[in-house]
């Protein structure tokens, strides 16, 4: 076997093994998303959180898993069977994915101010219509989750919740905020945010109350809540994690470039191997 044939065999099995790994990973992601979609109760009890918009994220995970499996399957079969059409399709899909990521990065960089304004509008609209429609709570649950993770309240400050119609007191002008604004560290309470939405509201004091729906939890703004708006918290998070985000994006891009290079190298050199084998026959 010549050096060129040995190199092509190495590239072929390298592509096959790594795409097989991504195929299994995509299958796990698909099963995970399907599990959330079918058996939401078990997932909630396993994770311990009950306020994540599971319906939306389960579909995103399932679709991502299917796409990952399809792309990896093209790479596996194309490399193992040495099929130029599949290798070309695999290269084209990777190139399209890479170009989409580059385009999104450029748009985010150049349209940053407009994007910030749009996000601010969506957040303030979500706050204004918070729990107004019990059948459409995905955006509200996402914002609750963001406030809890970023340790913030409102977009600019907790006073943004003045516009929330469902949190206005009927007999008092006192400002109410969702329980996702609750600062458990201020009272050394680490028992978990998920319990706030259900039966254990007593630790917030007698003024914590439920309104309109069973999962609407509100407490006074003068209680132990986060005083910082999420806009500032989000900027801090991006600043603190900028190196990690850039590193992950560069890593993903380099992996895609590597796979594209190997696939096109294998695709272009298959003819030479076939011609050499034909001469030996």
Automatic annotation (TrEMBL):
Keyword line: Cell membrane, Glycoprotein, Membrane, Transmembrane, Transmembrane helix
Pfam families: Tetraspanin
Protein's UniProt name: Tetraspanin
Presence of the UniProt keyword Glycoprotein in the record: yes
Membrane topology: Multi-pass membrane protein
Localization, UniProt: Cell membrane; Membrane
Family that this chain belongs to: Belongs to the tetraspanin (TM4SF) family.
UniProt xrefs under CDD domains: CD37_CD82_like_LEL
Lineage, broadest ranks: Eukaryota, Metazoa, Chordata, Craniata, Vertebrata
CC terms in the record's Gene Ontology section: plasma membrane
Subunit annotation: Interacts with SCIMP. Interacts with SOCS3. Interacts with DECTIN1/CLEC7A.
Transmembrane segments: 13-38, 59-80, 86-108, 242-266
């Amino acid at each position: 076997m010549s050096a060129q044939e040995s190199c092509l065999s190495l590239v072929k099995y390298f592509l096959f093994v790594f795409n097989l790994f991504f195929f299994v990973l995509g299958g796990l992601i698909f099963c995970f998303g399907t599990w959330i979609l079918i058996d939401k109760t078990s997932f909630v009890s396993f994770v311990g959180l009950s306020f994540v918009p599971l319906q939306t994220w389960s579909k995103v995970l399932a679709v991502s898993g299917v796409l990952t499996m399809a792309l990896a399957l093209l790479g596996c079969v194309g490399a193992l069977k040495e099929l130029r059409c599949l290798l070309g399709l695999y290269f084209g899909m990777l190139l399209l994915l890479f170009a989409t990521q580059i385009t999104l990065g450029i748009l985010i960089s150049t349209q940053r101010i407009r994007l910030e304004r749009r996000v601010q509008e969506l957040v303030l609209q979500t706050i204004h219509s918070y729990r107004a429609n019990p059948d459409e709570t995905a955006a509200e649950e996402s914002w609750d989750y963001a406030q809890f993770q970023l340790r913030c309240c409102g977009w600019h400050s907790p006073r943004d919740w003045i516009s929330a119609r469902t949190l206005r007191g009927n007999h008092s002008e006192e400002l109410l905020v969702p329980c996702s604004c609750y600062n458990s560290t201020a009272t050394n309470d680490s028992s978990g945010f998920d319990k706030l939405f259900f039966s254990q509201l007593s630790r917030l004091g007698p003024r914590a109350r439920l309104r309109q729906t069973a999962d609407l939890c509100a407490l006074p703004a003068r209680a132990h809540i986060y005083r910082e708006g999420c806009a500032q918290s989000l900027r801090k998070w991006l600043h603190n994690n900028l190196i990690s985000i850039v590193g992950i994006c560069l890593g993903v891009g380099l992996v895609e470039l590597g796979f594209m290079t190997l696939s096109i190298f294998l695709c272009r050199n298959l003819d030479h191997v076939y011609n050499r084998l034909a001469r030996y026959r």
